[in-house]
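ok so i was messing around last nite and threw this chain in just to see what happens. nothing serious, just curious
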Amino acid sequence: MLSLQGFRTRIQAPEAADEEAFLNAMRDSVGLHHPWVSAPRNHAGWQRYLKRLERDNEAGFLIKRIHDNVICGVINLNIITYEALCSAYISYFAVAAQAEKGYMKEGMLQVIQHAFADLGLHRLEANIQPDNLASIALVQSTGFKYEGYSPRLLKINGKWCDHERWAILADEEPG
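result:
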């Protein structure tokens, strides 16, 4: 199991033993996540999430505090592509009780380092709804640059939503 440690947090792949803590954290974070993300909140959703991460082109990480193993957030690398593109889409969400404490930034920097140094990716892209200011602040603080605007790019909660595209390249310095 992959586990990389930072100063206050570590990132690790989710495992079956994380289910109860994960689901409790996600249920407690619905207000923070809505309307931007629908995180798994029941056993079936958790199982679908783990199954998705078994694919070669997906990777998921829990951000956990080192001193007490509390889940602070989730970061996923989606649609990992090699060959000429060497890229992935990055998605993420915080746990409400741990939000605005810097844990997401620390975890994001660990995932960026892993994506470029260990997975050999060249580019990470985050697609963010324009009114999700906390998410935009996070990617800006970790070195992502604004690339453009895409109308009706992703279907979220049954509705096609506009997104801003933010990206970081392997040869750029993370925040």
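not much to say yet. The first helix runs from residue 19 to 27.
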